[in-house]
Specification:
Oligomer: single chain
Number of strands: 0
Structural class: mainly alpha
Order of helices and strands: HHHHHHHHH
Helix content: 55-70%
Strand content: under 5%
Number of helices: 9
Length: 198
Amino acid sequence: MTSASGAPARRTRLTPERESELYAAVLDLLREHGYDALTMDAIAARTRSSKATLYRQWKGKPELVATALRHGGPVPLAGIDTGSLRGDLAEMVNCSSDTQIEKDTALLRGLAHAVYRSPDLHRALRELVIEPELTGLEQMLGRAVDRGEIRAGHPALEFVPHMLIGAFVARPLIDDLPMDVSCLEQFIEAVVLPALES
C-alpha cells in the first residue's frame, strides 16, 4: 500500500499537514547544510519533534530524506496521461517551475556526492524516488508505443531517462546556467522526441 506521494504507507499519528511541514523542514535543512551535516537531532529541533517520533515513522536519515524528496517533488509521472507522448512530456514540464527546478537540481546535486558514500541513502533514493519515476516514464513511453507514436523495440527508448537526466547535469557544466522550463521544453522538442522517431 502506498500513499498519494508514492511513498510506502505507514501507521502514523502525524496529520498530512504535519507530515508536509516536517518534509519541508528536512528539505530546508538539506539546502542549508547538505546531507552529511544533516542530523536527526537537527531535524527534531527544527520540527519540534522527538527523535523517537522520527525513528518510529522512518528507519533513519536516508529514508526520511528520500521520502521528503518524493513528497516535495512534482506530480508523479504515473499520474500523467494526456493521450499523446508530446502532451505527456509537456505536462511533465508544466508541473514544475523555474524556481522548483532550480531547487530540485541543487538538492540532487548535493545528494549525488553523498550517494557514493552512503549505500543506505542510495538504496532509499532508488526505492522511493528514482524507481517510481522510472516506472512512470516507462508507462508513459509504453502507451506511446501502444498508440503507434513510437516503434516497438526502438533502440532510443531505454535511453530516455539518460537523456533527461543528462540535460540537467550538462547545462550547468557547459552553459554555466541552471536548467529551466524553457530549456527543458526546447530539449524535449529538439532531442528527445526526434530521437524516438522511426
